[in-house]
Specification:
The structure holds 2 protein chains of 2 kinds.
Chain A: H1 21-59, E1 64-73, H2 76-81, H3 84-95, H4 102-109, H5 116-126, E2 134-140, H6 143-149, H7 166-177, E3 181-185, H8 204-235, H9 240-253, H10 257-271, H11 279-303, H12 307-315, H13 320-348, H14 352-356, H15 377-385, H16 391-422
Antiparallel strand pairs in A: 1-2, 1-3
Helix pairs in contact in A: 1-16, 3-5, 8-11, 8-13, 8-15, 9-11, 10-11, 11-13, 12-13, 13-16, 15-16
Chain B: H1 3-10, E1 21-32, E2 35-46, E3 50-54, H2 61-68, E4 78-86, E5 89-90, H3 98-104, E6 105-108, H4 119-129, H5 135-149, H6 153-156, H7 169-182, E7 187-191, H8 199-212, E8 217-221, H9 225-231, E9 234-239, E10 242-248, H10 249-254, H11 259-265
Parallel strand pairs in B: 3-8, 3-9, 6-7, 7-8
Antiparallel strand pairs in B: 1-2, 1-4, 4-5, 9-10
The chains are: A mainly alpha, B alpha/beta.
């Protein structure tokens, strides 16, 4: 056996495999750092989950509505006069004929929604053969009864602290025994406009208003923003003017949104005399707000296109415009779209500038176009949050849920579009 | 194999005097802002030959190359002085269309830069924007001829729809050469076309350059003196923005007139 140790080099770093104090400290630091990161993510997820859960729990009852079955007799004379409200009263009184006191009767008919007459009318207009007959119809209960039936009001509270009094409780219990009370999914929350009566108020008007507003915003800000960014990035000379413009665009991105609302009020409404509360004006104001976002995102996306592609295109004789339209912009498209959708999502959640141009008005009708007065989702949330009726608390949270759903949907579309464009290498 | 032997193996019989000059630069100066990059360069590039531009980094050889198809135009603050003619036409005259010039003077870049499109579209793009092929059939023909000339056809003919960026480095560079010759230029400029490639891919491109010489006039910038010796018939040596010496390649490499050329090719600097 020969001595091999003479052939072995000796490391100056000490023996292999032995954990030095420094190595241990380094490992500990790495573990600690990972823990901090995990803790941060955990906290963020927890806070978000708490927020969404609390909104969800508060908003969930708004998606359901209590209905009460009435037996309505429609005589030809009432149908002629259109006094369905009176018919509704009559059929409510018929449920409890023993109630005769005028004040008591008023309370009794308050069990059903004041808009229940319209539901009867709709049923009759739908099927005129009902005139002259007696038929059963489910109509909405009033908001207080709705809350009581859904169990959000404690019946053991002293009567003075309850909006639904003892005699009403007795009536409702009686109706429940007869199978005349039912809680159903509240489809009309998604199909009707706003109302002063919580049980009739729906989100559809605000959804359509938001849609029209965003259409205008997109139509104005996307072409303007992309063209401005392409010009600034690809064609404009580098001089003091373009520097000034660049600084101002970056500043505009940081301007509080209400300032854009004031600008819209002064320019679009007062100077140009455009209609108040209209998605047209709201969309233009929001377009002003999203322009800087789109311009900045587009310029960043254009800058990220490698110069070798431009050289290649120039090298085969493409003009500057062809280089931009055939190569640079298509390659930058994922970034441009992402920026645009982020801008749109911002615009969707914006309420302050719209307050300035009158989109905070109480509007019952669902808007038919960009010139009709309308409101938008965040403003609708603001209006409902400001309303005194207790049932609007749930409606507010439900509207927030709808808004959040749209935001998630838009972001999903952004991710999808980005993936699809990126697949083209 | 020594540089001198390689040159004699090239078997040049023709002399530059017999050739017409395709590109003639007279007193070319280039400024980048305040900095002057080229000083009164006088260089004539003969037709159907490979002219190599050599010299240390930053000597102005790429700058001169980019003057020939006016690629310097896109650089802010770049000014070109003097007179540069292609086929006797001053290409810096105001009524010259850069797009037309670049269709006549094609370019291949240092790093392979295929468009992120299919192989077919990479080749078809040039002819399409110049309106050189009408109809799918004609375009197919242009694509096939160009790929054949670039020696790439057999490797890619079954996957013309696949992205050009999916090819290997050497294939990508040959794709770029095919793209350049698809618009049927007279001159092809190559800016260190092999610097990002391995030796085998480099040898393939060098062979190709030799074949292309029959149809095109080629100007190549290279860092490798061996490459210049292997592929070129004429060589121009640049140093610090000055054209130090130019002449037939074997003369430059075996019997340089200037001391700086001598120092550079023997590896004393650079």
């Amino acid at each position: 056996m020969t001595d091999t140790s003479s052939n072995t080099a000796v490391s100056t770093q000490g023996t292999w495999g032995e954990m030095s104090e420094r190595t241990r400290l380094r490992y500990a630091a790495e573990r600690r750092f990972r823990l901090y990161g995990l803790a941060a993510i955990g906290a963020a997820v927890l806070i978000l989950a708490t927020l969404v859960t609390s909104i969800g729990i508060t908003g969930l009852p708004a998606f359901f509505q209590t209905y009460i079955k009435l037996d309505v007799t429609v005589d030809a004379a009432s149908a002629e006069k259109g006094s369905y409200r009176g018919l509704m009263f009559k059929s409510v009184y018929a449920l409890y004929p023993e109630v005769t006191d005028r004040r008591e009767k008023k309370k009794l008919r308050g069990i059903v929604s004041s808009g229940a007459g319209r539901e009867i009318k709709a049923a009759v207009l739908d099927d005129p053969s009902l005139i002259g007959t007696t038929f059963s119809i489910w109509v909405r209960s009033s908001d207080d009864v709705d809350i009581f039936v859904k169990g959000q009001m404690d019946r053991n509270l002293p009567e003075a602290d309850r909006r639904v009094k003892d005699n009403e409780v007795a009536w409702i219990d009686g109706l429940e025994e007869q199978g005349r009370v039912e809680t159903r999914f509240n489809f009309s929350f998604f199909s009707s406009g706003d109302s002063r009566e919580p049980e009739q108020a729906g989100i559809w008007g605000a959804v359509v208003g938001s849609f029209f507003t965003l259409c205008v915003t997109l139509a104005v800000s996307f072409p303007l923003g992309v063209l401005a960014a392409v010009y600034l990035e690809e064609f404009a000379p580098q001089n003091r003017w373009t520097d000034l413009i660049e600084v101002n665009i970056n500043n505009l991105a940081a301007v509080p949104s209400i300032v854009f609302g004031l600008l819209g009020l002064a320019m679009f409404l007062n100077f140009f005399g455009m209609p108040r509360s209209a998605p047209l004006v709201g969309g233009m104001v929001l377009a002003l707000m999203t322009l800087p976002t789109i311009i900045i995102a587009t310029r960043a996306a254009l800058k990220a296109v490698p110069p070798s592609i431009r050289e290649a295109a120039l090298g085969v004789g493409a003009s500057e415009l062809q280089v931009v339209t055939h190569h640079v912009v298509p390659l930058a498209m994922p970034g441009i779209l992402t920026g645009t959708i982020i801008g749109m999502a911002q615009a969707l959640g914006e309420s302050a500038p719209l307050l300035m141009i009158g989109m905070v008005a109480f509007i019952v009708d669902v808007p038919q176009g960009i010139f009709d007065p309308s409101t938008v989702l965040p403003v609708q949330i603001y209006i409902w949050a400001d309303s005194p009726e207790r049932a609007f608390v749930a409606k507010t949270s439900a509207a927030i849920l709808v808004l959040l759903t749209f935001l998630v949907f838009m972001n999903a579309v952004a991710v999808m579009l980005r993936k699809r464009f990126e697949r083209r290498w | 194999m020594s540089v001198a032997e390689q040159i004699s193996n090239n078997g040049q019989s023709e002399t530059a005097v017999e050739n017409k000059f395709k590109v003639i630069g007279k007193d070319i100066t280039v400024h980048y802002g305040e900095k002057q990059a080229l000083f009164d360069v006088n260089l004539r590039i003969p037709e159907h030959q490979v002219t190599a531009l050599i010299g240390p980094s930053g000597c102005g050889k790429s700058t001169f190359l980019r003057c020939i198809n006016r690629m310097n135009d896109v650089i802010d603050g770049c000014r070109v002085g003097g007179e540069l003619t292609v086929d006797g036409v001053d290409i810096y005259r105001s009524n010259i269309d850069v797009v037309e010039l670049r269709a006549r003077v094609g370019m291949v870049f240092q790093k392979p830069n295929p468009f992120p499109k299919s192989i077919y579209d990479n080749i078809a793009y040039g002819p399409r924007i110049h309106g050189q092929a009408s109809g799918r059939g004609e375009m197919d023909e242009v694509v096939e001829t160009s790929l054949r000339r670039a020696g790439l056809w057999d490797e890619v003919k079954d996957r013309l729809d696949e992205p050009g960026t999916g090819l290997s480095g050497g294939q990508q560079q040959r794709l770029c050469i095919a793209r350049a010759i698809a618009v049927n230029p007279d001159v092809i400029l190559m800016d260190e076309p092999c610097s990002a490639l391995d030796p085998i891919a480099t040898a393939r491109i060098e062979e190709l350059i030799d074949e292309l010489r029959e149809r095109f006039t080629i100007v190549i910038v290279t860092h490798s003196m061996q490459q210049a010796a292997r592929v070129s018939q004429r060589t121009a040596f640049f140093h610090l923005g000055v054209l130090v010496e130019e002449g037939e390649t074997d003369q430059i490499f075996t019997n340089p007139k200037d001391e700086r050329t001598q120092d550079y090719i023997t590896g004393r600097f650079g």
